[in-house]
Amino acid sequence: MSETAATSSEAAAGCPFHRFLDFDTFAAGTPRAYLDELREGHRILWETDDHATGGHWLLFHQRDIDHVLQSPDLFTNNFGPILDDFPPALLAEQQESLTFMDPPRHRQYRALVDYAFRPAAMRAREPMMRALATDILDAVLPRGECEFVNEVAMQFPMRVIYAVLGVREEDFAYVADLTNTLTLADDPEFAENREAGFIASMKLMEFGAALAADHRVHPRESLTMDALGSEIEGRSLSDVEYGRFFNNLIVGGMETTRNTLAWAMVEFIRNPDQYALLQADAELVVGAVEEVLRFRNPVVYLRRTATRDQELAGQRIAKGDKVVCVLGSPNRDPAFFADPGRFDIRRAVPNTRRNYRTFGAGPHYCLGIQQARSNLTVMIGEMARRIHNPRLLAEPRHARSIFMDGFKELRIAFDAEER
Residue 57: which H helix or E strand, with range? Predict the structure, then answer.
C-alpha cells in the first residue's frame, strides 16, 4: 500500500466507523451520513478488507465512477462485480457469462436479449404485469397486514421474470431459493457460508441449461425461446451458454426490484406526506419511482479490477487492484441534488435520471432498466391506489450484506380491503 493510501486510511479511522464496506457498518443498511462524510473528504480511499487481496480502493464522485465504469480497457469486469474472489473453477465458468464479459464480446451477447427490454416490449408486457400486481395485492389486502418482502416485493418481480423467461410454476420456489442463497450468501438465514452462494450460482446456471433443453422439446413463447433461436458469432446458443444467461437475467430481474419496492414502502411510511401526494395524484408515480431509486439504491457498489498500473483520482494504483464504485454516493451529492437527504417525489425526473448512478454506467449499464422501471411503476401505482394507511408492525429486518441494501422482513399493517 502506498504512503498516500495509508494516510487516507488513517484519515478514515477518524470517521464513525473504521471501515466502510463492513457488515457491522451496514447492519442498518447503507450508512448515508458516513458516506456523505467520506465523499466530502475523499475522491479515492484505500481500505483494508478480509478478501484475498487484502484491500480495495473506494470511489465516491460521479466523474471518477463514470471513468472507471466506462473504461473496460483500464478496469475490467472479468473478475466480477463483487469484492469476493471467486474460486478458480467457478470464475472460469462465470467469465463466459454476460455479467463478467468486457466489450466487444459483451456487446455481442447483450444484443441477444436487449430487444426484450425496450419500451415497445414493456408496453406489450404491461397487461400481464398489471394482472400479476392485482393478484398479489388481492391475496394480502383483506387481512389488513402482511410480511411485505416475501408476500409482495419478492412475488411481483419474481413472477414477472418467470413469465418472461418461461419458467414453469412447479419450479418457482426452487429458483427463488437459489437466488436468495446466491445474493444473500453472507446472511446465515439464507446460506451457511459464502461457498453456498457460489454453489447456488452454479445450480442456477444448471437450471437455466435445463430450461433451455425443456424449451427445445416443448417450444413456447418466451425470451428463452427467442434467445435459443438467435445466433452469436455465427452459431446458436448451446443449453449451457443459455444457462449462464439465465443466471444473470434471473438475479437482475428479481433482487433489485424486490429491495426497491420494500424501501419504497418504508419511505412512504416514514414520509406520509409524500404518500398522500402520490395517492392524490397518480401522475406522480414516475417521480416516486425515480426518487426511491435515487434515495435508496439497492446495489451498494460495483467492483472493477485494474488492468495495468495507472493513476486514478490522483493516486497510483497497481495492476490487479480492486476499484469499488460506491453507487449511492452521487445519488446524494449536493452538487446534483438540492437537499439530497430529503425524500421528495416531486423532484425533476430528467435531472434525477441523469445524475444518479443506481443502474451503474458504461457497457454494463443495467440491461433490464426498462423492465425495472416498468415493474416499479406498475406496483407502486397499485400500492398507492389500494394500500391505505400503511404502518410498521415491527422494525424492518435488514439482510446481512454489503452488496445489496434491502430487507429480509418487513411486517406492515394497513386498512383492510373488503372482499
Answer: strand 55-59
- Alpha-carbon Rg of the chain, whole angstroms? 21
- Domain residues of the chain, as ranges? 3-413
The Cα–Cα gap between 244 and 241 comes to 5
Superfamily of domain 3-413: Cytochrome P450 (1.10.630.10)
Strand partners, 75: 306
Query: Which candidate, 406, 418, 346, 336, places its Cα nearest to that of 148?
Result: 406
- Could you read off the pLDDT of 86-127 as tens digits, one per residue? 888 888 888 888 889 899 888 888 887 887 788 888 889 999
Cell of 385: 391506489
pLDDT at 35: 97
Q: Are 147 and 410 in contact (CB under 8 A)?
A: yes
User: Which residue is it, cell 457469462?
Assistant: 97
Work out the pLDDT band at 320, boundaries 50, 70, 90: very high
Indicate the residue type of 317.
Answer: I
